[in-house]
Design goal:
single chain, about 70 residues, mainly alpha, about 85% helix
């Protein structure tokens, strides 16, 4: 019986996409909540802390388009 390698490949892709989505969710929502609610940083301080991450993501998206 022949193995279905396409289905195995699709399963790996689904797992990778799920992990990527979860990590992006954590970076965009959960880290600012941690900084503000648990560590009691102000909104301005949280924004300044996360500014390098936002700039790096913008740069990566720009380079990806080119």
């Amino acid at each position: 019986m022949q193995e279905n390698t396409v289905q195995k490949s699709a399963n790996k892709g689904t797992v990778i996409a799920s992990v990527t989505t979860a990590s992006m969710f954590a970076g965009i929502l959960l880290i600012p909540l941690l900084l503000q609610e648990v560590l009691h940083y102000s909104a301005l301080a949280t924004g300044l802390i996360l500014l390098p991450q936002a700039l790096a993501m913008g740069l990566a998206m720009t380079v990806g388009v080119l």
